[in-house]
Amino acid sequence: MNNKITSNNRYLRPKIVYPIFLIFLVFFDGSLMSGFSNFLSFYDFSILPNLTFVGIFYAIHFHSDKHFAFWWWLVAVGLIFDLYYTQAIGTYLVSYLVSAYVVYLIDQRMPYRIWSTFWTIATGLLVFYFLVFIAGILVNETDIAFANYIIFTVLPTIIFNAFIEIIFYRPVESLTYIINK
């Protein structure tokens, strides 16, 4: 007998759930930033919620990227982010793709522990925001010093998003196990 745990609900298939979840997170990020902008920006510090990247990390870390056309949906998420928030194609599209690939390469070599997931997502977010900063410099949209950007924006953002990732790690792991099987 074959005792595999499978979902009988056809709507809980990874090909349906993950793309909807990633697109939802794109708009949820914007809602968080506009709704809590006073809370997330104080003094010179700025915290940017990037739950879309956390969702991308979860898809890679829990091997859900093999159950649907992950990289094509990642292109779609980058395009949606670019067109909806920046009205220019390229910045977030390339940043999401490159940082997700870096996370993919690192995650294969790291042990399966929560502390290593912190360093994996921190590295991915560092690459992501470095690419966004470079794109901002290339189009003369950024006039902040790189050290100030790292200290006052990137580090608080990495700490905030890694904290969110650690809080939701076990529930998402359980849900991913149900959906992928």
- What topology, given as strand order, has the largest sheet? 1-2
Broad structural category:
mainly alpha
The residue-averaged pLDDT reads 86
Shape descriptor reads globular
Strand content: under 5%
* Rg measurement, Å: 17 Å
Order of helices and strands: HHEEHHHHHH
Number of helices: 8
Q: What low-confidence regions span 5 or more consecutive residues with pLDDT below 50? A: none
**What is the terminal separation in angstroms?**
17 Å
Helix content: over 70%
Oligomerization: single chain
**Into how many domains do the coordinates divide?**
1
The biggest sheet, with number of strands, parallel, antiparallel or mixed sense and barrel status, is: 2 strands, antiparallel
How many DSSP E strands?
Answer: 2
Family: Belongs to the MreD family.
Membrane topology: Multi-pass membrane protein
Subcellular location: Cell membrane
InterPro entries: Cell_shape_determining_MreD (IPR007227)
Kindly summarize this structure in a few lines.
This protein is mainly α.
Overall description:
With 181 residues, the chain is an all-alpha fold. It has one domain (21-33, 48-180). It is 73% helix and 2% strand. The chain contains 8 helices and 2 strands. The protein has helices at residues 14-35, 37-40, 51-61, 70-86, 91-109, 114-138, 146-167, 169-180; strands at residues 41-42, 45-46. The protein has a two-stranded antiparallel sheet. A hairpin with a 2-residue loop joins strand 1 (41-42) and strand 2 (45-46). Helix 3 (51-61) crosses helix 6. The longest helix is centred in the last third of the chain and has 25 residues, at 114-138. 28% of the residues are buried. The model has no long low-confidence stretch (mean pLDDT 86).
